[in-house]
Design brief:
single chain, 1 helix, flat, alpha+beta, three-stranded antiparallel β-sheet
């Protein structure tokens, strides 16, 4: 049985959100609002997995930059 929309959304649960069927539709952000990976007709699971991996790596890099201010490595010396 398929539903045209989700019955319940849990923001922040860490699960992938899809516009339709998993690996056969657009991958959405955790809020279900922004398309992270756009599905293209004829795309195989391997290509979708590669695109998901790249989005995750890009997101991890943005998170590191936000934590460091600009993403540059810092050499911090302890004051004595």
């Amino acid at each position: 049985m398929f539903y045209p929309q989700r019955v319940v959304d849990f923001e922040g649960d860490g699960l992938e959100k899809w516009e339709g069927l998993s690996d056969g539709s657009n991958l959405l952000d955790d809020k279900g609002e922004e398309v992270l990976v756009e599905f293209e007709e004829g795309m195989g699971k391997e290509e979708m997995d590669e695109r998901k991996k790249k989005v995750k790596e890009d997101g991890d890099e943005k998170k590191r930059k936000a934590e460091n201010g600009d993403g540059k490595k810092r050499n911090v010396k302890a004051k004595v």
